[in-house]
Amino acid sequence: MKQKLLMILLVGSIAHAAHAQNLRLLTYNIRHAENEAGQINVKALADFILKQDPDVVALQEVDSVCGRSNKLDIAAELARPGGRLVYAVCSILSGEGAGQIEDFISRRSSWTVQETGIAGGRPVGGGRLLTPGHDGTDGFFVARLGSPC
Length: 149
Description:
alpha+beta; five-stranded antiparallel sheet; 149 residues
């Protein structure tokens, strides 16, 4: 079910991309943006992504080893002006879901919370919370944020 929901999220994000006949999707395990020397190197990561010229970027391991809020900021640094960031976590804990969005917006007030386009779940903290008891899924929190132009 997790894979199905993530594919739905990805398809929902793609639906909001420019109306192009060919959509370039880059899925990339950034391994928490750490290079071989053990340093966080966002610029090198951004340069690589820009060189690929994707329409949509799906990042994995954005927060591995390090705290989630710091890694969410790395994804924000990689977003183009006017771009979107979809935050999805397989958890029903507020601190890992809605709390992360609140913390993010408090640090980056020019970003806006946007509708996720997901019909299921319940609105919670700027996103949607899906739970086993309510939705028959694993626990998920999903939010979509828009970067300033």
